[in-house]
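Case study: LuxR C-terminal-related transcriptional regulator.
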Amino acid sequence: MAGHGAEQHPHGADRLCEAGDRVYSRAVRRGRVPRRDADPVPCLLELALLHPDPDDMDWLVPTSPQEVMTRLLRGMHDEVSASQRRVGSAVAAVEWYAGLGRQVRPAAPAAEGPAIRVLDGLARIQAAMDEATQACTAEVLTVQPGGIRREAELSEGLHRALALRGRGVRMRDLYTHVARHGQGLLTYLELMGDAVEARTLDEVIDRLILFDRTVAFIPANTDRTMALELRHPAIVEYLVTVFDRLWRLAIPLKAPLPDTGIEGISHREQSIAALLAEGHQDAVIAERLGISVRTCRAHIARLSETLGAASRTQLGVRIAQAGLDGPPPSAVSPSLSVPDQGSRTAR
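Here is what the predicted structure looks like once written out:
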C-alpha cells in the first residue's frame, strides 16, 4: 500500500505524510473534502484513502478508518505468511545441503594440523599432552574440578610439570575450595615452588588445560576417555578469557576463605545454601562443589539446625531471610539476624 505519484509522498497508509494526515482527518470528520484540497497530497487517492463522491465529482469522500485498518492487517498477515514460507524453504534447503555434507569425505588437514582434533582413548590424550608440554615455552593455565585431587592424578602429571618448571614455564591452576583440604595438592605445590600459582573458587568449569595460549585441551565425554585438542585461535582466545575472569574472582590458595558473616555457617555451607535456593538437587550441588553427596547432606543438616528449619521448605525460607541465597556479604554490609536464632548474628 505505497503511494508513488509524487516523489515527496513515497509512503504507505501505515505512515501518512503530515499533509496527508491533515486532509484525511478533515475528510473523516466532515464526511468529504473539496477535490482541490487533495491536490497537494496525491498519495491519498493512490492509497484509496479518498475517492470521488459519485453524487458530486468535485468532492472526495474518505474510506472509513475501519476499512483502512482491515487492509493494513491483511497486508501484514500476507507478509508474515510469505516470510514463513521463505523460512520453511530455507530450512528445507539447509537440511538438504547438510545431507550432502555428510556424504563428502573430509579434506586433508592443513600442514600445521587441524583446528579441532578428537583424541579417542587415554593413550592418545597422554601423547598429545606430552607433545604440547614439550613445545610449551611460556605459560600453562589449568582448571581442575572435582574437589580433592587424588595423589595418583597428581603423580601422573608430575613429570610434565617438572619438565615445564625446568624450562622456566609459569603455571596457574584453578581448583575448587574443597581442594584446599587435600594433602597431595599441598605436597605437589611445595615441590613446584614459585613455578605454580594456585587459586580456588566455590565451583569451576570442567577440566581445561591451555599451553602458551595456542592449544587447549577439554574433555569430550563425561568419563574423560575422549578429549578435544583445540588450536583454532578464536576458540583458544575465548577459553583464555574465561580462565582470566575466573582467576580474578578466585582466592589465592594460601589466603583464608572469606567469613560468611553469620556465626555457625561456614563458607561451604553458604555456597550450598545459594545452590539450594536456586533449586538444585543434592547430587548436583555435590558435583558442582566437588564433594560427596553424603558430605553435602551433612552440611545441609547443619544448615537446617543452625537456621532453625524443620523441613526443606522451611530451610529455603530461612536461607532467603538470612541473605544466604546470594553472594557472601561484604565486610561493610549491615548485620544480619538469623531467624529464630537470636544469639547468632552477623559479625
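For the exam, be able to explain this: The two ends are 70 Å apart (CA to CA).
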